[in-house]
Description:
- This protein is an alpha+beta fold and about 375 residues long.
- About 40% of the residues lie in helices and about 15% in strands.
- It has twelve helices and four strands.
- The two termini are about 50 Å apart.
Amino acid sequence: MYVAVKGGERAIDNAHEWLAEERRGNPAVPELTIPQIREQMKLAVNRVMAEGSLYDPDLAALAIKQARGDLIEAVFLIRAYRTTLPRLASSRPVDTGAMAVDRRISATFKDLPGGQVLGPTFDYTHRLLDFTLMAEGATPDQGSPSPLKGQGRCEDETRAPHVTGFLNQDGLIEEATPSDTMPPDLTREPMELPASRALRLQALTRGDEGFVLSMAYSTQRGYGRTHAFVGELRIGTVAVEVDIPELGFAVEVGEVELTECETVNQFKGSRTEPPQFTRGYGLVFGQSERKAIAMSLVDRALRWQELGEDFTGAPAQDEEFVLMHCDNIQATGFLEHIKLPHYVDFQAELELVRKLRAEAGAMQEAAE
């Protein structure tokens, strides 16, 4: 056993060296820098921050580089690092109504106060490869800056009201009832079912984007009986404030980029509630609008019991199914552990199959 252990250690060390060589690639090609990844692969950086539950673009870029572009592995690295950090304070809830908006659209109201702000988006691009990006140092439209660039950003003190507030004035949408209860912290406490909506939203915002997207898509295809409109989708930066007991007031300690989505769903009413619209909600680090929209659809599907709706058996309505399978780190760990040695288990299975085959052969011979 000693020889096997030492041989395994050498093999692992060699595998690590080979991995480092593969990560670096051809030495003749300039190495990627952290600023390059942070600035030019922002959407990947945003996903790693969201699913890693840590807002730090530099560390997310480092994780992507170390993981050779494997975003789930990068999320794993970020979560592992996050566990080593002390918690110095808890911030106040961010005020998304005061967001400095880069992008703000609504599929329900064309003329909303402040206007529709398209911002940076793939929505209106042609899905054609841009071969100018292959030229060294060249970028398309590198000439004079667009005169419209940045005009949609709300950097003054004016607030950008939420679209759902307009419906709320007429009582056409359910009231958003804030709670004074401190929500549980999924990063420090294990998941418990049934989960509160606050805990569900935490799980969804750090859940795997592909899984949440699939669940949301299933609701649109009829598995969940929810047909949603995007009431509002906004992307921008918000201030993060922390209460300082010694000072008696809150101090702004920084700002984060967020994507927020509120969906509007028709609700036929119940014995206690009149017909109205209901809400689905999504909030994600960075520019992650696909994830935010998907999150809001799944959030609404999971609220069927709270709203007195029927359970149709749809996967997106099943709280345990969604919450226990949306975390890509847990899923990856359980999936990839089967490639580790299972020699004893397999030998037991092998002996059992041989025994069953021998018994079946004996029975066949006796029958003949």
